[in-house]
Amino acid sequence: MAHDVRIEQLWIPDSLEAADAADFLAAVEVGRRVRMETWGSDDLAYAPLEKLLELADPYERQVILVAKMGHEIVGTVDIALPLADNQDLAEFTLDILPEYQRRGVGKQLLEAAEDVARGEGRSMILVDTNHPGTSLSDFESEQLIPGTGDGFVPLGSREVEFARRSGYTLQHIEQFSACTLPLDTQLVAELEAEAEAANAGRYRLHHWTDRCPDEWLEAVAALENQAGVDNLPPGQEQAGMVFDADVLREAEAVTISQGRRTVVTAVEHVASGELVGLTTISVLAQRQDVVFQDDTMVLEQHRGNKLGLLIKVANMERLTEQFPDARVIYTWNAPENRYLLTVNRQLGFTTAGVTGIWQKELPDFRDSTS
Known about the structure:
By secondary structure, the chain is of the alpha+beta class.
């Protein structure tokens, strides 16, 4: 059936109401249906306006290819091309409607996306596969473990078979967890008491939403840079964005322009006056019932004082105060980050599944023909 498929670049309309927006809306709906099939809900799916706003991101250009059978869009691949850093990289998000899987649609879309990436001068491709928690127990005896040695994806799953057959190598795993909001008030009181006893008044919390206070800009930029180092997969050198005060303000402006909100709690070491940790939660513009835990980091010399627990509890409480419609918070963590996984379990996070990150280096055809 693959010969019936046409691959086209998706036209991005000026607005959702435009006469030429039908294909865009259909492509976003493909993503929603795939996430419903994978996770049993559309919590992780883009709303159409959310996706349209994201496409204006100045730090990343996105090209979307669609697979059509007749007039129906049956699959999409989103090609994200970083512009500020990692300019050898392209990240793919591949979605095929369940009823059109195993019919060659994914293969055609993936090959077309690789051609686009190569034409953009990108030599390294990342693509992910998603595996709900229920599927992990089904394949306990058939595990593919990444080079890091932590976590696994189910070897017999369709997505894993497809990635391997397409020449991709499993690089690392991210554990995907969910926590129901609001937190139980008794649990909050217990965890706050535990964290405060450990830090013994040596630390002070600071909170803000959307924009960092001027006095903490440089300190937050330094923490973000350290988080970039700490979150690198094993063996990978830092090539991400380097933050300073100007870059941080620009990033805030982009987030605000997309309608997203950011709830932040930071912690100051009282004796030195230094900011030594922070945690961030992102709230989407179009649906404030689903929120996402972003970076949590504490400088190494201040670890062991339960500061990660202190700032996460405080930030989740502030989130509930400001966004009372939030009913669930999602987060991704490397399996080797045992400290944060322990904190998350204390807060009530449960494992929802895993995401496998796969990598492929594209051969440079200019080299092979010279």
